[in-house]
């Protein structure tokens, strides 16, 4: 526990500063998204994005913060060496747990917002690339940390674990497609031409009939 406190003691003030900014940015981002999204989806997606940015910022600060009395970084490319040393009596099991939990929140949050990461294989690949970049940055800037293959494996495992835990909620924040509007089929109405009916008085018909039937009377 002492080693854990020494390693993460510097993150306490950083987290205390970053957390209010994340809490302030959440409602502001949600208010902007309400212009084009329902209130529930705007608030939820803004919360997930704010949490992911906060975690990413804290991870960046953690891996770039110098530790120990040495300014030189150590490179260890033997798989399993760090894990074996941590499991010994004089080792630090908290270091293994911390490496597993480092990318676990991002593995849980990113598939909710990024549809291309909605498979465990893609999450593992993205976490592997991110962890390699993190370990390479640690080694290049010489913060006194150990850059090892085991850290990459543990970080990737943590991201897969986070993705597996949140797998059922990956589609919970997807905006439903708009309801299709059913337009009734237009019916063609054929208008018949009006017929003109002439009503001739009966006396006129009698006169014409008498003229045709008895022409000798004319």
UniProtKB/TrEMBL annotation:
Signal peptide: none
Listed transmembrane segments: 6-29, 41-65, 93-112
Domain VanZ-like residue range list: 53-166
Keyword annotations from UniProtKB, A to Z: Membrane, Transmembrane, Transmembrane helix
Source domain of life: Bacteria
Native species: Amycolatopsis nalaikhensis
One Pfam family in the UniProt entry: VanZ
This protein's record includes keyword Transcription: no
Stated name of the protein: VanZ family protein
UniProt xrefs under InterPro entries: Teicoplanin_resist-assoc, VanZ-like
């Amino acid at each position: 526990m002492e080693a854990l406190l020494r390693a993460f003691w510097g993150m306490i003030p950083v987290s205390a500063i970053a957390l209010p900014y994340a809490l302030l940015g959440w409602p502001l981002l949600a208010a902007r998204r309400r212009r084009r999204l329902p209130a529930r989806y705007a608030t939820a997606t803004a919360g997930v994005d704010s949490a992911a940015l906060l975690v990413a910022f804290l991870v960046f600060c953690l891996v770039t913060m110098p530790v120990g009395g040495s300014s030189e970084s150590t490179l260890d490319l033997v798989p399993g060496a760090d894990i074996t040393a941590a499991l010994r009596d004089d080792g630090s099991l908290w270091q293994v747990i911390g490496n597993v939990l480092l990318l676990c929140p991002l593995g849980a949050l990113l598939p909710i917002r990024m549809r291309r990461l909605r498979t465990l294989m893609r999450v593992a690949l993205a976490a592997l690339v991110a962890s390699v970049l993190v370990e390479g940055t640690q080694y290049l800037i010489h913060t006194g940390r150990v850059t090892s293959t085991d850290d990459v494996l543990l970080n990737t495992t943590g991201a897969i674990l986070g993705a597996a835990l949140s797998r059922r909620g990956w589609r919970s924040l997807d905006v439903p497609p708009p309801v299709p509007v059913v337009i009734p089929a237009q019916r063609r109405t054929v208008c018949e031409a009006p017929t003109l009916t002439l009503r001739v008085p009966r006396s006129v018909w009698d006169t014409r009939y008498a003229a045709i039937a008895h022409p000798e009377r004319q």
